[in-house]
Specification:
single chain, 201 residues, alpha+beta, 8-stranded antiparallel sheet, 3 helices, 24% strand, globular, disordered N terminus
């Protein structure tokens, strides 16, 4: 799983040593009914916040297990990241869609750059993918991240999907969860939407 935060290396070092048998390309059926990503994530986040009342949902990470893809349904490696007390906690989905492993804890302080995400995201990854493609980014991606960065200008304070694009146009592409705008960089505080050069749709 590719991680975008400063706790990347620590999470990888603390990952289970036993390999996780995630689905291969041949075993994934896009026509097999399954719980939508938003539904299973929301249910697990809410349960985690009940079990750990001082936790805060900070980040959602979704990764492909078969390499770059243009289909969001092939992103089946899912991780939920929480701030917890003076450290952080993460919960991984198992190889069975909708079932989750036990939480794992780190003493490393959570980076202060992200706001707390709502327990239910306001946009599904399928719609975010459609907006990215409509804006002209039709290439593959291997990972998608959901965060709510701090320090955004008024009117842009919202969670964002971040598609890590590969191929001919590599780099991050962001989708605002509330305004559905697509951009290649996030606006900075003091910068209005009309003068943000990274906006492409």
């Amino acid at each position: 799983m590719r991680l975008f935060t400063n706790v990347t290396s620590l999470l990888l070092l603390n990952a289970p040593s036993t390999p996780v048998n995630l689905p291969s390309n041949s075993s994934i059926s896009l026509y097999t009914p399954r719980i939508p990503l938003n539904d299973t994530v929301s249910a697990k986040v809410r349960q985690t916040l009940i079990d750990f009342s001082s936790a805060g949902f900070r980040e959602l990470q979704i990764t492909s297990t078969i390499g770059p893809t243009t289909n969001p349904e092939l992103l089946v490696d899912v991780r939920l990241l929480f701030s917890f007390q003076k450290g952080c906690m993460y919960v991984d989905m198992t190889s069975i869609w909708g079932e989750w492993a036990a939480p794992r804890f780190l003493k490393q302080p959570w980076p202060a750059g992200n706001n707390v995400l709502p327990s239910r995201l306001g946009m599904d990854i399928v719609l975010a993918d459609e907006l990215v493609k409509k804006a002209g980014y039709v290439g593959p991606y291997e990972a998608v991240d959901v965060r709510w960065p701090k320090g955004l200008p008024l009117g842009k304070e919202q969670p964002y999907y971040c598609f890590l694009m590969e191929g001919d146009r590599p780099g991050p592409v962001y989708v605002g969860m509330n305004d559905q705008r697509v951009m290649t960089s996030l606006p900075r505080e003091g910068e209005g939407a009309e003068d943000h050069g990274g906006m492409i749709a």
